[in-house]
Design goal:
The protein has three helices and two strands. It is mainly alpha-helical and 90 residues long. The protein has a two-stranded antiparallel sheet with strand order 1-2. A hairpin with a 6-residue loop joins strand 1 and strand 2.
């Protein structure tokens, strides 16, 4: 039996806003502090290494579907050299 998760109706808006705010930060339109106040509640944290970030991915009930695992693998390939760091911390 495959488990499904209903995504919030605002997800597309949230993703669009994340993209917009990230672009504004890259362009210098908002400060690092302003961007931090936006990205941290979204689960994106700066690491000790300059320019390195960590994403916390919420897994409702600890369940991931095949397409979700593939999406995380693609993000890992594109942004983390294909080596994700996975923990069991909840």
């Amino acid at each position: 039996m495959e488990t499904t998760y209903n995504l919030p109706p605002t997800l597309k808006e949230d993703l669009d806003r994340f993209k917009t705010e990230t672009q504004r930060f890259k362009e210098g339109a908002i400060s690092a502090a302003q961007y931090r106040s936006f990205r941290v509640p979204q689960g994106v944290y700066e690491q000790r290494e300059e320019g390195a970030f960590m994403m916390r991915v919420r897994l409702p009930g600890g369940v991931l579907l095949h397409d979700q695992i593939r999406a995380l693998a693609n993000v890992s390939k594109k942004y983390a050299g294909g080596v994700p760091h996975v923990t069991t911390r909840q």
